[in-house]
Amino acid sequence: MSPTIATEQIDRIVWNHHHDPFEVLGPHLISQDGGTTIWAIRAYQPTATAVTVVFPEDRLEIPMESVHNPHFFECTLERDTLANYQLRITEGDRDRTISDPYAFRSPLLTEFDQHLFGEGNHHRIYEKMGAHVVEQDGVRGVYFAVWAPNARNVSLLGDFNHWDGRKHQMRKLPSGTWDLFIPGLDYGERYKFEIKNQDGHIYEKSDPYGFQQEVRPKTASIVTDLNSYAWNDGEWLEQRRQGDPLTQPISVYELHMGSWLHEDIQLPCTHHDGSPATPVQVNDMKPGARFLTYRELADRLIPYVKEMGFTHIEMLPVAEHPFDGSWGYQVIGHYAATSRYGSPQDLMYFIDQCHQNGIGVLVDWVPGHFPKDGHGLANFDGTCLYEHADPRKGEHKGWGTLVFNYSRNEVRNYLVSNALFWFDKYHIDGIRVDAVASMLYLDYDREEGEWVTNEYGGRENLEAVEFLRQLNHLIFSYHPGVLSIAEESTAWPMVSWPTYVGGLGFNLKWNMGWMHDTLDYFSMDPWFRQYHQNNVTFSIMYAFSENFMLALSHDEVVHGKSNMIGKVPGDEWQKFANLRCLYAYMFAHPGKKTLFMGMEFAQWSEWNVWADLEWHLLNCQPHAQLRQFLTDLNGLYRSEPCLYSQDFSEAGFEWIDCSDSAHSVLSFVRWEKDYKDFVIVVCNFTPQPHSHYRVGVPFFGFYREVFNSDAGKYGGSNVGNLGGKWAEEWWFHQRPYSVDLSLPPLGVLILKLDREKTAAAIGEAETSGDL
Fold first, then answer.
1. Against a cut of 0.90, is the pTM above it?
2. Which of 284, 359, 421, 765 could form a disulfide with 771 if both were Cys (CB 3.0 to 4.6 A apart)?
3. SS3 of 488, please?
4. Residues recognised as catalytic
């Protein structure tokens, strides 16, 4: 039989050079004349010895013949339609029957999808790109699509074709996307893309839009159903949608899921007074200790966080990454939850359980850079597709990673859609965007001559600015009530201002200035603090220029910086007192809060991603007392709206006295909205207690001591005010009334006007005639 197509076309298929195998393979109308319709069916099966066309409904079989190449098969037949035919493939003594992939010509990715993608405005592109189980013409299978516009050709690899790229060659669409529907495949299939550049060099790539990958060091993507999990957090999501997080308490427990805890044993744990507390799960770090799964973490982590009173969990990146030592910040699969801890459904269960227990979930998100691993985005189609070709813009040499090319619409679309994906599919409550400064500045971590200016001669990355604005605008448009937090370490203006007034659109920004000043201050010997009062007062000068979050994060307890307990001076008692003082000052200061795991009980060692936290320390009274202190501090913070409802308004904060540097004492008021309620905060940053320390207050009455960081139950010296003090009509600090206080060493007092007791005392005085 002579072929019905040019042999050059057959050669392009055999050599795997064709950009559109549908032009050659599958069914083709040869002629239609006088009511007679002639079809040709062609197939390339490089391991087959024979191929037969089967019409199962008609019980008809038509053998195909080899033409031009021993493994290229063709037959012609007279038939009105060719619906529902199959191919029976003979390979040695084994037969298998498949539906012909090249009989399904309609792409799931429509022209409109491609148009929006090319504009950078397809907000749900992950529903079309990647791998999706669909039904076409009544046949179930998997539709694959990947963007690789500069590739010569692209094929699919997988268990289904013995990882032979000749068997499933893909078609190039006008957008530069390659697609193919393979009937008969289902969830659980492993696959990769075999991409050839114009010189024929082969790159085996994981799916950039893949929803799951194999556990490292394996790198194949896995066809996954993200719609099978039954969520039970509808009430939580509705409350979130109706709420304003900026006026709510936010106390975040930042953690790395792989080093919070491994395989565990139980050690007894008691409160400071000897009463039993929740047993602490610890690890003896025996060789081979495995990660806890998402579901195991739900059983152990959520009760711990809930008991401690944190409002949110922030997970260091859980998108797939090849190297454990990157902490998750070198992402390969932006759409794939890491398989280290289980399946995507397991992560959904974890987040669902958090919501059912009143805990929000934040995810560290990394749109600033990506690693150079061969199966990832780097040199994806043989060209610098996702990154800049010019290393002066496309590489972070200090990190050994590549920078996304935000000027390319499709790259920007990939990232924006990815952020929305985590909200859509995993119901997360916010993202913390990593390394924003590295995105904003073209000269970030670069020496002179190692960077290029923008079109106006400046160092601002204008494309990254527009990307961040688009990102935040869409996040809050689709998901009101969530958080978008910038880790931004410079003085770039209006980071947390809305996009419609020219801001970047985040609703929170980490306050790196406060963090550095505060840690520098607390690292000093207390005697020298009198000369550095500015360290703990200057932050109020700019506290309301942005919506700030006060963060003591993982970055502060690595790379030789010591953990928190090691940063502060003094003997053991003073170290713990300093930490209590620092945390209480932090929670009283305007701004939302973030603490990294281990800080809550004063771990001595720096964080080690390969090991557990030092849970055994909770068997030592000072560490257990500090954890109880932070639990109570969270409880106070959540119960007092004046400590959180006006974090970003000058009306929510008022200095009483910030100038007593000689005693290293600060005092201020935190006001609730409309001045309905308030607390008085007094901080003594030295180990010298002060008696008869007078502080001005706005109203007459009894000021109850609602919190004392020096309380004996926390390991303090128990210096206090016997539950509270009556204000006296004694003008002080420009106020008509004042209280005479005992200030504890390295302590923070929080006082609140007891209106009931005050009213009762005034009523009694009026009745007796004493008033």
1. yes
2. 765
3. coil
4. 434, 487
